Amino acid sequence: MTRGFWMPHRIGMAALALAIAVWCGVSLRWDWLPEYLPLAAMGLWRTLWIMAASVVLGMALAVPLGLAQAAGPWWLAWPAQAFCTVIRGTPLLLQLWLLYYGLGSLFPGIPWLRQSDLWPILRQAWPYALLALTLSFAGYEGEVMRGAFLGVPKGQLEAARAMGMPRATLLRRIWLPQAVARALPTLAGETVLQLKATPLVATITVVDIYAVASKVRQDTFLTYEPLLLLALVYMAVTGLIVLAFRALERRGPARR
Amino acid sequence: MFALAAASSLELLQFSPPGWGANLLRGLVNSVLIALGAFGLGGVIGLAGAFGKLHGGPVTRDLLAIYTTVVRAVPELVLILILYYAATDAVNRLLLGAGFDRIQISGFAAGVLVLGVVQGAYATEVLRGAIQSVPAGQIEAARAMGMPPGLLARRITLPLMLSAALPGLANLWLIATKDTALLAVVGFGELTQETRQAAGTTKAYFTFFMAAGALYLALSLGSNALFRRLERFARRGERA
What we know:
heterodimer, A: mainly alpha, 11 helices, B: MetI-like fold, 9 helices
């Protein structure tokens, strides 16, 4: 991969990039950094777990959504398709605000909910953030899973049926593994998109890494420094996601 | 009680001042205009980027690779803030340098510019793939006839790549319409921002967010239908 990477013009560009980086380091203000580092670490952690949790939960929802659209009876297929269309047809920010402000204004009016043990959780913002991101991921990935289920060769399913395999076993042993294997290459890209969606949760007071950068900007009146560092952090996380999925895919069966 | 709630919802969505329907529609128009501008700008950047990536020199190609990689790795919200401040700063430095007063860049222009730059990165990839899908024989034949490069692009490459590019472009248009909602975070009065104001004032959160969702959905579904027809038009004369 690195063969022929260091061509003359690339050495010049790297030198230029280094010069810009050094200039940024020297002439921009970074003295606020130590003070905010603990907060930034917590924000980054929150960004990462909201992303990871919504991807896992969303994927768990996407499988039945895809299956319902690919093979379900109409009374399952239609709602699933409507769900995917609505999620994919409206902005995530709107969905987030609908859940947070809408449900958040509805719940306090229900007395038994306010007395229940769930209330301390429902009063916070992150459950709504997680719910909105999960539903969004499920909507997009459900459409991918529909295609993946339909893309599994018919012969595989017919062979399993001919062997007298019950339907549940067929789904568990044949259909689902092959559909997931087909959807896996899209998962890296969708996960990066999910990472890029997480800063929206800052608009409903969840303190993620983006919210920390906003706080730095408000406290110090600096414009560029926190934003540039923030962009760098997101690029680093994106790189890590891509590398992780590449390693994961290499471990799977090679023949496709 | 349900009927009462429905009646009060309708009242809130009414067109004239006690209702907020006019505000929502104005927001929708703003959203569509920004999306159109950004999509157009993104298309122009994408076309230049695609030709640059395919036919440019090594430096051009590397710079374009950096552009598309960075834009696809950094959240749109962060890019919007960086580009908004950077663009305002740059314009004002230029104006001050030339001896003019500093100006306030309108939210509309900034929105179109920023979303256009974001769209351009994705459009570069879509159009590059589409241009590559044009059979080499067609281009060679045009060259053999002595067609100059500009005419070749206009008459051969662009019309032939259109059918391959349209699904990707349709997707980008839908992303553009939804990304306009991000401008609400910086306070521009597009549909989501107007909706939040209406909802915050009247406390009827469900009514307004649902109404805005319906508008966005109608826009998506309408665009889908339009792009399907466009694709059928672009595929005319192709073998099924």
